[in-house]
Design a protein that fits this description.
With 470 residues, the protein is α/β, with parallel strands linked by helices. It has 3 domains: 72 residues, Thrombin, subunit H (Beta Barrel), CATH 2.40.10; 280 residues, Rossmann fold (3-Layer(aba) Sandwich), CATH 3.40.50; 103 residues, Bovine Mitochondrial F1-atpase, Atp Synthase Beta Chain, Chain D, domain 3 (Bovine Mitochondrial F1-ATPase, ATP Synthase Beta Chain, Chain D, domain3, Orthogonal Bundle), CATH 1.10.1140. It is built from 13 helices and 19 strands. An 8-stranded mixed β-sheet has the order 9-15-14-16-17-11-18-19, sandwiched between helices. Strand 14, helix 3 and strand 15 form a beta-alpha-beta unit. Helix 10 runs antiparallel to helix 11. The longest helix is centred in the last third of the chain and has 25 residues. The chain is elongated, with a radius of gyration of 26 Å.
Length: 470
């Protein structure tokens, strides 16, 4: 391992070093300062004569007299089952005051792509306890389902609720299986970090969680490493130890801003809105690490969170994320201002794998038809709100007024459940039938007639018959 004192330039988080032999891409380096302290970095670009490095701890104290030593290996994450219950920095170092980590092995954080032939199609239903998700945008084991939010909205509260409540319903007679949770935070404030840790400790979720914290005042370069550390840990627990792992990554927008900052320092030709042209590939490298492998008991399910700049879902970050992932859950600003918890807008939300993980054998035979009917009825009621603003409610027919009432009741009773309420899928579907009971039977055109006869509320049926007689 040669040591070089040939730093040519320091630019933001990057250091350019002259070398006389080939250096591997992503290789780890140690940079020794004149006062004896050491910083670590990673090879970002390797040429014949000049190598560019990204420094994890920042470049403030560096100068051209600092020495650089190449370690001949890529960055690795020390993994062990004992990581559960620990809080780590964005680079994987313990920051909770606990004992040093004694790893079972050290794994390359880049990870290996899952062989498409070995992938098992995601099918098993995950019960999050959140009706707007379970009933309308069901999360499936092995899926990647992002939360699209905006600045100041309670996306973190929803993520924590899902992390706290998520279970895999097992066969009859067996207990539900709780998820191990990998929580990767990128660029969050100290206040947000304290809230996360307090909530994890209060609910006991920390015992089955591994928390990676990269704070807003930590180097932007570290933000590139944090999700890879988190996903490497998730893969180990899932495919080596058999855990069902829920990986929450927040905030992907901060991650992409770090990509843009480093790209600008490297003087790369920018793509859309100044983001690197390779951002799609970079995000895909993260998102595609979710999934199941045939013959393996465990699974990795991803719940990335991103705040859309200006609430614009055509922005490059949500736009590219939508191409890669299997749907999205939208957090709505209007519903949040009106006090709904969680303020999930089910109309633009989508789970592309939902149909494969619900129905008889997974949830209940009526789930798919009920979800379709709820969506259609709520969409019609929501559209009528615009008409009411023009002509007034008195100008609408009795049928239209029923749909308007349905839309209000749907938001108030179905979507709005509170941050501490955990509803089973049975509770969610029964509540859905109570709401559909406010509509006449003949309006339930998206539900099989046999299911209507079986589940339509008896009191609603009696009331409908009385109205018909009158």
């Amino acid at each position: 391992m040669k040591e070089y004192k040939t730093i040519q330039e320091i630019s933001g988080p990057l250091v350019f070093v002259e070398v006389d032999e080939p250096v591997g891409y992503d290789e780890i380096v140690e940079i020794k300062l004149e006062d004896g302290t050491t910083k670590r970095g990673q090879v970002l670009e390797s040429g014949e004569d000049i190598v560019s490095l990204q420094v994890f701890e920042g470049t403030d104290e560096l100068d051209r007299n600092s020495s650089v030593r190449f370690l001949g290996e890529t960055m690795k994450m020390p993994v062990t089952e004992d990581l559960l219950g620990r809080v780590l920095s964005g680079r994987g170092n313990p920051i909770d005051g606990g004992a040093d980590i004694v790893p079972d092995e050290r794994r390359d954080i880049v990870g290996a792509a899952i062989n498409p032939h070995a992938r098992e199609y995601p099918r098993e239903f995950i019960q999050t306890g959140v009706s707007a998700v379970d009933g309308m945008n069901t999360l499936i084991r092995g899926q990647k389902l992002p939360i699209f939010s905006g600045s100041g909205l309670p996306h973190n509260d929803l993520a924590l609720q899902i992390a706290r409540q998520a279970t895999v319903p097992e066969e009859e007679g067996d207990d539900d299986t709780e998820f191990a949770v990998i929580f990767g935070a990128m660029g969050i404030t100290r206040e947000e970090a304290d809230e996360f840790l307090e909530e994890f400790e209060r609910t006991g979720a920390l015992e089955r969680s591994v928390v990676f914290l990269n704070l807003a005042d930590d180097p932007a370069v570290e933000r590139i490493v944090t999700p890879r550390m988190a996903l490497t840990t998730a893969e180990y627990l899932a495919f080596e130890k058999g855990y069902h792992v829920l990986t929450i990554l927040t905030d992907i927008t901060n991650y992409c801003e770090a990509l843009r900052e480093i790209g600008a320092a490297r003087e790369e030709v920018p793509g859309r809105r100044g983001y690197p042209g390779y951002m799609y590939t970079d995000l895909a490298n993260l998102y595609e690490r979710a999934g199941r492998i045939e013959g393996e008991e465990g699974s990795v399910t991803q719940l990335p969170i991103l705040t859309m700049p200006g609430d614009d879902d055509t922005h490059p970050i949500p736009d590219l994320t939508g191409y890669i992932t299997e749907g999205q859950i939208y957090i709505d600003r209007r519903m949040d201002s009106e006090g709904y918890e969680p303020p999930v807008d089910v109309l633009p939300s989508l789970s592309r794998l939902m149909d494969d993980g619900i129905g008889e054998g997974f949830t209940r035979e009526d789930h798919e038809d009920v979800a379709n009917q709820l969506y259609a009825a709520y969409a019609e009621g929501n559209d009528l709100r615009d008409l009411v603003n023009i002509v007034g409610r008195e100008a609408l027919s009795e049928r239209d007024n029923r749909y308007l009432d349905f839309a209000d009741d749907f938001e108030e009773d179905f979507v709005n459940q509170g941050w501490n309420t955990n509803r089973s899928i049975e509770d969610t579907l029964d509540l859905a039938w109570d709401l559909l009971g406010t509509l006449p039977k003949q309006e339930l055109k998206r539900i099989d007639k046999d299911l209507v006869e079986k589940y339509y509320p008896e009191d609603a049926e009696a009331e409908e018959e009385a109205e018909a007689t009158a």
